[in-house]
Amino acid sequence: MLALPRLRLLTWAWRRGNLQAAAGRPFCAAAQEEDGRAGQGQQQQRPPLDPGLLEILACPLSKKSLRYEESTSELINEELGIAYPIIDGIPHMIPQAARMIGKENQEKEPEQT
Amino acid sequence: MAASMAVASCWVLRGCRDQRLLLGWGRRLCSGGGRAAADARTHFGFQTVSEEEKGEKVYQVFENVAKKYDIMNDSMSLGIHRIWKDIFLHQMNPCPGTQLLDVAGGTGDIAFRFLNYVRSQREHQVRQQLRTHQNLSWQEITKLYQEEEHKSLGGSHVVVCDINKEMLKVGKQKSQCLGYSEGLSWVLGNAEELPFNNDSFDVYTIAFGIRNVTHIDHALQEAYRVLKPGGRFLCLEFSHVNNSLVSSLYDLYSFQVIPVLGEVIAGDWKAYQYLVESIRCFLTQEELKELMEDVGFLKVEYRNLGSGIVAIHSGFKL
Which residue in A has a C-alpha nearest to residue B160's C-alpha? Predict the structure, then answer.
């Protein structure tokens, strides 16, 4: 019996939440679109990674500092030969997301630069 | 009306019985899970699964509910989670310049509160400064205000680290909608293998996250490593209720209402069934305190909120 008013209150809160979410959606969708466009421009014009963040980021495996490779938008651990991708400005710092850099690539890289 | 009440009371009574059975069953499984830790098995709610499986299952849960996570938090707790998080921030009491790492903070609830708090602290500081320097010239005052615009956070920065891509995506979108950009970074990372240098942060927070970590001791060790000497560890997490009346009402609500809400709002009964089960399987206040002390944290203490529905644990790296 006690549960009834509480449930009614909950459904009210839920309906209100949904309304708010619906009202917020067009604005957020616009913000996302803008962000998408800004993100594209950002990648071309300025580095998407905050230098302050680069200073504190480390390889989760070796805990050593990383090199930021702007052309591929990756954070590279030279010692272990692993590259962590930066996707939409978010560094993906887990080994499952990382890419192994083959020895051939490593040799080629200095030639390219 | 009377019929509906009778149905409702039957439903509640049946619920109580089911729940008692469920709790007994759950406790057995949980204790089994604890003993089985040596052969790399752990608990996922009331199920016993391999450690690898737990990571995957937790990931799936949060991937599925990411978009509805905030609405669910509001409706399940009737908005009380906001008060708990505000109390958490007041306990942290960060001053301008504080470097914060918020682990498992995907949707940014703690990070946004931190930025607001630091900004208001900074404004207070400037007002105080102006009050003590009454004889400043206009030039000095405008200079001070200009400086202030650039440093409204006084150099504070918060890094939100979460293992779940979807949760981070929701958080980042939310930050853009709400207009937070300065002093905020997002990193995908594992609490057990933090991708940060040693001694990097003044405060480490984990709010409603540590329960979902497979090896809590590893997460605590990593927290200790990335904190600067003098840094503070703060954890906000569901805990164990110490009042029998609150406890029975809370159990009833948890097992009978929350999964239903999960199904109705987020379309995911299992995710919210996991939520309530994982809370029952989580360490008690004293157990978590001991674990923190084992890792090396000092001056470890905890504070119960809502008779222990949640607890805030605090410890220092000295």
Answer: A90
